[in-house]
Structures are given as C-alpha cells and as structure tokens.
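Researcher: Can you fold this with zinc ion in place?
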Amino acid sequence: MRPAPRGECRQCWEHAYNSRRAHKHLAPRENCPECVSHMVNGHPDQMIVK
Ligand SMILES: [Zn+2]
Ligand SMILES: [Zn+2]
C-alpha cells in the first residue's frame, strides 16, 4: 500500500495503486466511471490530499 502523496486525488491514487480491483475488469489504460468523471470534471477538492 502506498499512501497518496500531497496534491494527489485519493480516489484516483487508490484505484491506480492500491485497489486495482476497481479497475480489474477494465483495459490497462481504461478508467472506471468514477475516475473518468474526475478526468472530465476535475477531482473534488475534498479528495485531494492536503
Ligand atoms: Zn480523482
Ligand atoms: Zn477508478
């Protein structure tokens, strides 16, 4: 487990490094709806590590 560093989005970090299960059914460079939503709308401020 690697904790998300400052400035990173917790959800996207978790998905990418700690809970790949969330992306297991996806292609290597594909993202789940939650991550896609972040890419389109931006990462919610409260999810960014302070
Ligand atoms: Zn994010
Ligand atoms: Zn994801």
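Model: Folded with zinc ion in place. Helices lie at 10-18, 33-41.
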